[in-house]
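help with this record:
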Amino acid sequence: MQNKYNLEGPQGTKPRKRLSGTNIMLYGTLLVVAFYYLLPLYVMVTTSLKGMPEIRAGNIFDLPVDITFEPWVKAWSTACTGLNCDGLSRGFWNSVSILVPSVALSIAIASVNGYALANWKFKGSEVFFTILIFGAFIPYQVMLYPIVILLREVGLMGSLWGLVVVHTIFGMPILTLLFRNYFTSLPDELFKAARVDGAGFWGIYFQVMLPMSLPIFVVAMIIQVTGIWNDFLFGVIYTKPDIYPMTVQLNNIVNSVQGVKEYNVNMAATLLTGLVPLIIYFASGKLFVRGIAAGAVKG
């Protein structure tokens, strides 16, 4: 009688060795890249915790002997950013005042645009989408002066709301692309079933699409927060000294030529400026990856 069990040995592919040549090359490359990016961060953090006498000794890679947080306090509250010597604190709140409405408006408008382009096709929708995406590849420098004229004519030049409008408009093309591709990747049967049940444009958007779209909203939020918070060009052109964002004030601190060059304060100010997008990214990193994998870059 033929044995019903397979006694020929294990089947399937042979497991790979953990220390194969490919793995060594892969992990070696990752370690080199990680070292390349982490070394400047290490220097910035250690320098920001040193006093100036220790920095003048020239041991840039050494850990601080006497840790001090005075450079951080000075960068936040008393460092001179031009005529004012109130540190980065004023610029921080200016950046928050710019960031919150800019992110909210751009994501809200772009999500509706992407939803409409994905599920409510209209005559000329593809042409409209092509023109919108084309706008994402026009260099910002080409539009600087025309936007100055437009903001001046509507009375928003040199104001926080003028900069909010600029960030909202420039974030529209790429965010619309993200939302359109994400909504296109969702099962079409959900949309059709909601239509059969009598739901309209806004009913489907709020009751069907939004509950399923948390990952792509996180992707859009991270992109906008990073871009808007780190922006320098628009901030220095479309605002004025009293309402400069944090990045412009950081530039004023670092490039100040008055008195002694305080490298520890400069490093602390740089780290303080970059903390917000860094914290948001690490807090929502998993959702960011889910959003990308779920169709954020799907054509």
Observations:
- The longest helix spans residues 89-119.
- The two ends are 57 Å apart (CA to CA).
- DSSP finds 14 helices and no strands in the chain.
